Each structure stands twice: as structure tokens, then as C-alpha cells.
């Protein structure tokens, strides 16, 4: 595992912990939708399905993690969410929501985890 993928996995582990602390149940991690991409985390929040994009950055990075969700990425996530739902028995009563979790790793101190519900 290279440093970049280790950083991403660490951020996803922190995101999973944040979702669990918020009362959500993680259903899937790193689900691949063929060549169209990957969903970092799929979770259940009550009767809603939540597709989470996780962005992890070091504090010295040029871009804040929350700025990394472009319209094209949001569109791809919607398509992946639709595919996940089709392969797993249909949409739940509460529908599907796309959340963004940004993890900022300062040079010192605890990571900052920010969760935006309904980001896309």
C-alpha cells in the first residue's frame, strides 16, 4: 500500500467511526461499480440509504477536502448510487442521499472530520 492509499484508508476509517457515532450503519465500503468508479462508504441512516464520498487531505494541501466534490463527481456518484440500489434490492423508503465527509489532517493534533449531509 502506498502513502496515498494509506492516507485515504485512514480517512475512510475515521469517516466510518463518525457515521457510527451518528447512529448510522455501514453497509459497504469501497464498492466498485465496474469501470464507472467506486463508492467509498454506503450506510443506512434510519430508512434512508447514504452514499458517502470521503476526501482526506493533509493540512498543507492546496485544496480543502470539502472543495473536492465537483459537479462531474457528484453526477458519477448519483449513477453509482443508482447502480448499488439496483444490485441490492431497490431504493429504501427514505430514498438515497449523497453525503461528503472531509478529513483534514493537521501537522499536529487531532484530525478534523467534517460531515455534510445531502452534499450532492
Automatic annotation (TrEMBL):
SUPFAM superfamilies: Restriction endonuclease-like. InterPro entries: Restrct_endonuc-II-like, tRNA_endonuc-like_dom_sf, UPF0102_YraN-like. CDD domains: PoNe_Nuclease. GO terms for molecular function: nucleic acid binding. PANTHER family: UPF0102 PROTEIN YRAN. Belongs to the UPF0102 family. HAMAP family: UPF0102 (MF_00048). This is UPF0102 protein GCM10018785_49060. It comes from Streptomyces longispororuber.
